[in-house]
Amino acid sequence: MTRINLTVDGQSVADDVEPRMLLVQYLREKLGKTGTVIGCDTSNCGACTVHLNGRSVKSCNVLAVQADGGEVTTIEGLAGEDGALHPVQEAFRECHGLQCGFCTPGMIMQTVDLLAENPSPSEEAIRLGLEGNLCRCTGYHNIVRAVQHAAGTTEGASA
Amino acid sequence: MTATQEPTQGEIGRDRRRKEDQRLITGRTRWTDNITLPGMLHLAMVRSPFPHARITGIDTSAAKAGTNVVAVYTGADLGESQGACINAWPVVPDQVTPAHLPMPSDRVAFAGETVAVVVARSAAEARDAAELVEVDYEELPAALDLKESAEAHTNGGALAHPDLGTNVSAVWRFDSAEAGTGGDVEQAIAEARQDGIVIEREYRQQRLIPAFMEPRSVVVDPTGEQITMWSATQVPHILRFALAATTGVPESKIRVIAPDVGGGFGGKLQQTPEEMIAFAVARKLGKPVKFTETRSESLLTAHHGRDQWQRLTLAATKDGHVTGLKVDLLADLGAYVAIVGGGVPVLGAFMFNAIYKFPAYQFQTTNVLTNKTWTDAYRGAGRPEATFAIERLMDELANELGKDPLEVREMNWIKHEEFPFTTVAGLEYDSGNYEAATARAKEMFGYDALRAEQAERRSRGDKVQLGIGVSTFTEMCGLAPSRVLGSLNYGAGGWEHAEVRMLPTGKVEVVTGASAHGQGHETAFSQIVADRLGVPFEDVEVLHGDTQISHKGLDTYGSRSLVVGGEALVRAVDKVIEKAKPVAAHLLEASADDLEFSGGRFSVRGTDQGMAITEIATAVFAAHNLPDGVEASIDSEATYDPVNFNYPHGTHLCAVEVDTETGQVRMRKYACCDDIGNVINPLIVSGQVHGGLVQGIAQALWEEAVYDENGTLVTGSFVDYLLPTAADTISFDLDHTTSPATTNSLGTKGVGEAGTIASTPAVVNAVVDALRPYGVHDVAMPCTPERVWRAINTGGSGGETTEAAAPHFDESEGAAQ
Amino acid sequence: MIPAAFEYVAPTSVEEALAALAEHGDDAKVIAGGQSLLPVLRMRLNAPEWVIDLGRIDSLRGVRDGGDHLAIGAMTTHHDVGEDPLIHEHALLISKAITHLADAQVRHRGTFGGALAHADPAGDLGAPALALGSTFVVQGPGGTREIPADDFFVDLFETSISEDEILTEVRVPKHGGWGAAYEKFVRIAHQWPIVAVAAAVRMEGDTIAEARIGLTNMGSTPLRARAAEQALAGQPATEEGVAAGAAAAAEGTNPPSDLNGDADYRRHLATVLTRRAVLAAAGRG
Fold it and tell me: Which region ranges are annotated with the description Disordered (chain C) (predicted)?
C-alpha cells in the first residue's frame, strides 16, 4: 500500500492504495465518484477522461499513485457550487449531444480542455480534438454542435 | 396521403430538451457497475482460449487458495442451478438447437466461453485468482468458415456440436407463388434470361459487434424476499422470465432492474451466460455479487451481428422493370442459437422486396452453427442486410441499363397513391410517399451539381474521384403484432404495457414496459402524456426498467417503444380521462354528456364551470365525495397489441471522395429524408438518425469482426475493432416528410433503426459509383482503403482481410519506459 | 482491466532511479507517461514485480537549446514538446508528427522519451527522430552514453538501451529553415498509422537541396528512406520530380501484413505518402 494525497473536485483526500490501482478505479471505488466511467481497456474510448493538474487525461491510463499530490477534476466537480451547470454541460443538453450518456462525462471533460486550448475551434479542430473519445449513439453530429454552441460559434441545436 | 405536419398542439412535435440529461451531464448516474452493496463479492470469468475443445480437467486449487477468494466454481459445481440460455424463436419446428448451459462442464464451443468463475472480495483479487485456474483442454476440429460449415454434414467437415451431426440449424423459406402473394420466381428468371436482364451477385454481410459504450455489468442481491438482479440490459422483463423459466425460481421471487443502461443497439437484448452465472453464484453463497466485463470480454463474448453470405438473382425486363427476386442466404449463428438467433435473417425475409412492386419473390435462409461467438440482433436485425442487398442490386440494374439509379428505383417503387399496398412478401404497407422523400433528399443533397462535378472529375482523370450513392429503404418495425409472431413460431407476444398513476399532488407517474437505454423515453413519453392529459411536461415522471414497478412489459428493441409502447400509453391516458369523467360530472353537478375535456380540464359545455384533471385526482384521493359505485382511483393501465408492423421509409444520398492512389474513402456529403410519420420530439428523432447513420456507415467503411484460422477473434479490442471517431465522420443534412401511420393514434413510425438500415448501401453504392470507370462493380465491406485500391488495380471486390493484428501492446517490449 | 500487483517506487533523481533499476533488474519496468505500458499491465500481458516511475524526476522535463541541437528531456510530454517554440523553429518535423500522435489526452500524459523507448515501429516519433538524425542520451551505472539514431532502434519494441540504463534526453540537431510534413495514413483517426512518412526538406530556390525521410511502420523499426532521400536531392520540387524520387521510398523495407493492409499495399502507400510529404514539406503540397 502506498499513501497518496490529492485534491479531487476541490476536496482534499488521502488514502492508502495498492500501487496497481488505476486513477479511475480510485475515483470510483474509493471516492464513489462513479460519474467517471470505464468504457474500454485499451485507452481508446476516453469515457474515463478527467482533468489532472488542469489537463485532460484518461484516468484508466494513470495509476492513482502517479496522481499523488495532484489536483483532479471530474464531471462531478464541473458544475458550480450552487449547482449551476458548466457552459459545456449546458451546451450538451441544449444541443442533444448525448443519448445513453455513457461517453458523456469523458466527452464533456475533453471538450472543456479543448476549448481552454482553443476557444473558437473550427469544426475540423473540434472533430480532431475529440478523436480520443468514442460515442456510439450520437454519430457525433450533435456533439460537434454542442462544442460549437459552448464556444459561441453556433446557435443551439436544430432538429 | 402525404400531409404537411399540422401545427403542433402543445407538446407533440416540440423539440424539448431531454429530462434524462441533467443526471447524465453531471455524473449523477446509476450504471450497474456503480452499484455497491454491503459484503458484495466480485466475479471473474475463466474463459476458453480455444474455439472448440473438450474440457478434460480443471484444477481450481491454487485459485481457491488466493487472497480473499471465497469460491471457485466450474460448470459441474453449479450444475442445473445455472439454468440455461434460451432461444425464443425456433424458426422451424425441427430447428437444430444445441443445449446452451451458461458454463459448460464438458466442452467449449467458442473462444471466450466461460469454464470457471472465481468469487473474491475484490474484483482485483478475483482476477488474480482467475489467472491461477488451470484448465486442460483437448482441442477439437472447429467449424469456422461459414460456407464450409454449411456443408460439413455432407463431407465430414468440422461440426460445431459433433453430437448434432450437422451445422445446419434451420432452413427457412418463403416463396410468393407458394404463399399466393406473387408469381413464380424461377419462371421470372427464366423469362429474363431469354429476353430481359438477369443480375446475379453474391454479397458478404461481414460480422459486426454492437459495441455499446457501457460494458455489460450485472449485480445480484439474493438477500431479502426477492432476488434482485441489476443488469445492463435492454430486456429486464424478458430476462426475468428466462431466469424463472430455466432455474425454477418462481418469477414472483425475482426482481430485475435495468438502471441507467449505456446503449444497446440490440447487443443487450440477450439473456447472457454471465447473468445466469452471477444469479447462480449469488444464490449459492447467499451474498450479493457483481460481474462487470472488460471491453475485451465484451467484444469477445457479447453477441455479434450480421454475418451472412447473400446469393441474389434479380430478373428484370429490358427496360428495367423488376420481374422477380430470388434470395439465398447463409447466416452464421455462431456457437449457439441466441435468444432471437435464427430469427434475425427471417426478419429480413420480408424486406428484400423493400419499397418495390416485385411480382415474384423467393427467400431462403440456411442458418448455420459455427464455433464462433453467437450472433443475434444488431441495430436493424435482418433488415439492414436485406436493404443492402436490394439497394446494391438496384444500382447494378441501373448500371446495366445505363440509367440513373433513382430513375430505375422510381420505375419500380410503390406510388404514393397506391397505399395501402400489400407486398409480394405479404405485408400491408399502410402509408408512405417515396416520391416526396426522394425529391426532398435530392434537393438537400444538390444531386445535379454533384453529378456534374463527378463528370468533370472523371473527364479530368482526377486522382480523387467522386461517387454518389443512393439508397431508399423501408423497414418493418414496431415489433410486433402478437398473432404474426405466433404464426412465425416466436415464443412471445409483441404487445406493450403502460400505466398512468394520478398522484394526489397533481403529479403524474407513467409506467412503461419499454426499457430505455439512451432513446429518451422519459422525455418523449412525458410529452405524449402532457399533451393528451393537459398537464405540465415537468409534472410527468416516467418510470421504467424495474420489474417491481413496471411489472409488465416486453422491453425495447426493434424500434417498438414509441409505436407500440407509446400507443399503450395513449390508451392508458384515455382511460384515465374516461374514469375521471363521471367524477368530474359529479363534482361539477353536471351531466357527463355535457362535459368536454381539453387542455387538462373538464368543462361544462356552454358555461365557465370546469375542473382540472389534477383536481379530480386530488378529490379521488380524498374520496370524500365520489359518485356511488365509482372506485377511488382514476389510475389506469393499458396493454396494446399492434395490428400491423410499422413502415417508416426514406431516401438517403451519399457522396464520397475516393483517393484512387491510396484507396482512402472520405465522406463528402450525406443527405437523407426520412418519413417516420408524425414526430413527437424532432430533436430526439434527429439524434436517432445521426447515430444510426454512423453505425451504418461504419459497416460500410470500417467495422469488421475478424477471426483467424485458429478461431481467435483478432479484432478483440478497440485497437482493432474500428469504431469511427468524430474525426472520421461528417455533419449530416436531415429532413422529414410526413405520411402519418394509419395503425396507431399518434401516427408515428419507428426511427431507431432507420439510419442504420439505409446508410450502409448508400455508402457502398457511392464507393462503387466512384470506381465504375475503373471497371469496378463491387467492393466488399468494409470498403477499406486496401480493398478499394486492390479493386481499382486488380479488379474483383478487394479480397479478404488479413487475419492478424499489429502487436502494439505486445508484452515483449524491451526497455519501454 | 486490473494490473497484477506490483511494488512501486518513484525516485526523484536519475541516480535514485538507476539504483532502483540495479536493485530490481529483470523484475522491474520503468514507467514514464505510462500511455503504452499501462494498457499492457491492465491486460496482464506483462506483470512486473516493480514499477519504477520517472514522473517525479523534474530534471528530465523540458526542451533546452543545446547550441547546434535541441535537447528534449525524456519526460517532457508530447503536448509540451509539440507546443514548444524552439521545436517549431528548429525541429518542425517533430511538432508536425506530434499533432498526429494518439489523441489529446494521451499527448498530455505520454512522454517523448517514453514513446521512443517503447519502440513501437508504428509509433509516430521514431521516424521523425530518425530522419532528423537525433542522438539518444542514456544513463546507466557507468555514466551516460550517446546512441546515434541509426543504432537506437534494434527491433520490434527493442532499443539499444541496456536493462540497467534509462533514456534521459533526446538531442535533435537543429533544422532551422527546413520544411516539414508528416503524412499519416489511417483508417480511423485514433489508430496507429498503417504507414506514415516523416519528411524534412531544405530548399534552394525551387530545388530540393536535401531531404530527410523517415518511415513509420514499414518494418520492425522506424526506417530511413535513404534511396529516396538520395534520389530527391537536387530534384526540382515538382510533382513529377518528387514522384520520381519518392518511387524509391519502399526500397529495403519489410513492412508487416495485418488487418489494415498487406506488405505490398504498404510499400505502395510509402511511395505515395513520401511524394505527398516531400511536396508538402517543400511548400508545394
Answer: 235-260
Residues contacting residue C187 through CB under 8 Å, at least 6 positions apart: B701, B702, B722, B784, B785, C194, C260
Q: Residue B810 — pLDDT band, cuts 50, 70, 90?
A: low
Contact B568, B544 (CB under 8 A): no
CATH of B430-477+643-802, one of 1.10.760.10, 3.40.30.10, 3.90.180.10, 3.30.365.10: 3.30.365.10
Q: How far apart are CA C285 and CA C274, in angstroms?
A: 11
> Would you state the cell numbers that stand for residue B754, as one nine-digit string?
432507420
| Exposed/middle/buried for residue A3 (C-beta within 10 Å: 0-12, 13-18, 19+) | exposed
Rounded (5°) CA angle B449-B455-B456: 90
- Going along chain A from its start, the domains and CATH numbers come out as 2-77 (3.10.20.30), 87-150 (1.10.150.120)
User: So where are chain B's domains?
Assistant: 430-477+643-802, 495-640
Whether the CB of B721 is below 8 Å from some CB of chain C: the reply is no
CATH architecture label of C7-55: 2-Layer Sandwich (3.30)
Q: Is A65 on the interface with B (CB under 8 A)?
A: no
Cβ contact (<8 Å) for B718 and A128?
Answer: no
The pLDDT confidence band at residue B766, using thresholds 50, 70 and 90, is very high
How would DSSP label each residue in B630-659?
A: --S---EEEEE--SS-B--EEEEEEEEEEE
Helix B785-794, helix C263-281: angle, nearest 10: 100
Tell me the three state secondary structure of residue B586: helix
**Cβ neighbours of C24 (radius 10 Å):** 17
What proportions of chain C, in percent to the nearest 5, are helix, strand and coil? 35, 25, 35
Chain B residues in contact with C275 (beta carbon < 8 A) = none
- The whole-angstrom separation of Cα C192 and Cα C123 is 7
The domain C180-281 is placed in CATH, from the list 3.90.1210.10, 3.30.479.10, 3.30.390.50, 3.40.50.300, at 3.30.390.50
**Which sequence spans correspond to the domains of chain C?**
7-55, 63-172, 180-281
Of the pLDDT bands very low, low, confident and very high (cuts 50, 70, 90), residue B7 is very low
Q: How confident is the model at residue B9 (pLDDT cuts 50, 70, 90)?
A: low
**Any C CB within 8 A of B809 CB:** yes
Which CATH number among 3.20.20.70, 3.10.180.10, 3.30.465.10, 1.20.1300.10 corresponds to the domain C63-172? 3.30.465.10
pTM above 0.90, yes or no: yes
A53 → chain C, closest CA residue: C108
* Statement: residue B817 has pLDDT above 80: no
d(CA B31, CA A136): 17
Domains B430-477+643-802 and B495-640 share a fold: yes
- CA-based radius of gyration for chain B: 28
Which of A35, A39, A143 has its CB closest to that of B213?
A39
Q: Which chains touch B (3 or more CB pairs under 8 A)?
A: A, C
Q: Is the pLDDT reported for residue A154 higher than 80?
A: no
Alpha-carbon distances of B342 from B174, B209, B375, B755, C105, rounded to whole Å: 15, 17, 9, 24, 43
ipTM of the complex in this document: 0.97
With a cut of 70, say whether residue A155 has pLDDT above it. Answer: no
* Closest CA relative to residue C211, chosen from C275, C147, C122, C123: C275
Region B347-363: mean pLDDT is 97
* Average pLDDT, rounded, for chain B: 95
CATH 3.30.365.10 fits B495-640, yes or no: yes
